[in-house]
Amino acid sequence: MTFLNKAFWVVRDKILTAHAIEELLADAVERGVRDLIVQVRGRGDAYYSSDIEPRAEGLQDPELDPLGKLVRDAAAVGVRIHAWGNVFFVWSHPEGALPRDERHLVHAHPEWLLRPPGERPADLPAVAADGRKRWPDPRLRYLDPTGGADWEGIYADPSLPEVREHTVRVFEDIVRRYPVEGFNYDYVRYPQKAYAASPDDHRHVTALVEESARRLRAARPGIVISADCFPDPAVARDKVLQRWPDWAERGLIDLLCPMAYRRDTSEVSRLLRAARAAAPRTRMWGGLMGYDGEPGLLRDQVAAARDAGCDGAILFAYDPAKRDLLDAFAEA
């Protein structure tokens, strides 16, 4: 059995300059990787031209439209670009700072932010000496009911129709503006079940997936809609209210990317087999982690994904400083 596809996830910090984008495409072509899932909405911001959300702070060149350059240059060399958008995860910062741009939804709509059930918003954020706003607790613990063990950052509340409409409008705008091959959902879930009012709140996540599928397909017929998911369907359902087997069964998703990030290859195999069994008719790329200095392990895990019945494999994540892993992934 051979794979139909190999792909890279490309995190937003790898598309900050024109040179970096050119290097990315050269690396992909050289290794025969023809699909790139590229993060263009990382934290409620835009690595593309947007009238809805603010330009990403990491972009220093005011003339650069990363997604625009990607789709133009990729078309010339036969590479397909899938726009990757973080769905409900809308902000994080290593020092607890808030977005600089007052248009960011954290500022414009603090009432949209996800909080544990029954908790009210904290006081307005303080202003530090450097002029950046910060919440009274720099790690935003009032948004963090389990004490930080699994805390990722600030989410928008999936239960709010306004949040879902804003998010779908962002995604629809991307696929109307840019001739992308696909659109990829990440963080299409609750951060933890502790944030949900009840287990039935999974319906809010599914409501976004359903509405987004309808509008993205209308905006760009033939678009490939994909979702990054917890690979064990029971864990996805019970821990983060992500019922992706239902989305697959209903045809809301064209491609699933179960994230089997484990060093233990036998566990990678188990997770991907469970994912394959839960969605036997939906195209699936096994999501694999590239561990520093372990190209042999990555080769073994590509084989495990193949043997589990995946249609392809996708590497987290592209890094030009780790070409040993890129080579191992491509050659496996």
> Termini separation (Å)?
13 Å
Radius of gyration: 19 Å
Number of domains: 1
Binned, the helix content reads 25-40%
What's the name of the CATH homologous superfamily? Glycosidases
Task: Kindly provide the name of the CATH class.
Answer: Alpha Beta
Q: How much of the polypeptide forms β-strand, as a percent range?
A: 15-25%
Count of DSSP-assigned helices:
10
Series of H and E elements:
EHEHEEHEEEHEHEHHEHEHEH
Task: For the largest sheet, list the strands in their spatial order.
Answer: 1-2-3-8-9-10-11-12
Silhouette: globular
- CATH architect. name: Alpha-Beta Barrel
**Overall pLDDT confidence:** 91
Main β-sheet description: 8 strands, parallel, barrel
- Which regions are unreliable across 5 or more consecutive residues at pLDDT < 50? 135-142
Topology-level CATH name = TIM Barrel
Number of strand segments: 12
The assigned structural class equals alpha/beta
Task: Summarize the structure in words.
The protein has 332 residues and is an alpha/beta fold. It has a single domain (5-92, 174-331), classed as Alpha-Beta Barrel (TIM Barrel), CATH 3.20.20. It has helices spanning 18-30, 66-77, 105-108, 161-177, 202-219, 233-240, 244-249, 265-278, 295-307, 323-331; strands at 5-10, 35-41, 80-86, 89-91, 126-127, 133-134, 154-155, 182-186, 224-229, 255-258, 283-289, 312-316. The model is unreliable at 135-142 (pLDDT under 50).
Task: Describe the SSE topology.
Blueprint: E1 5-10, H1 18-30, E2 35-41, H2 66-77, E3 80-86, E4 89-91, H3 105-108, E5 126-127, E6 133-134, E7 154-155, H4 161-177, E8 182-186, H5 202-219, E9 224-229, H6 233-240, H7 244-249, E10 255-258, H8 265-278, E11 283-289, H9 295-307, E12 312-316, H10 323-331
Parallel strand pairs: 1-2, 1-12, 2-3, 3-8, 8-9, 9-10, 10-11, 11-12
Antiparallel strand pairs: 4-7, 5-6
Helix pairs in contact: 1-2, 4-5, 8-9, 9-10
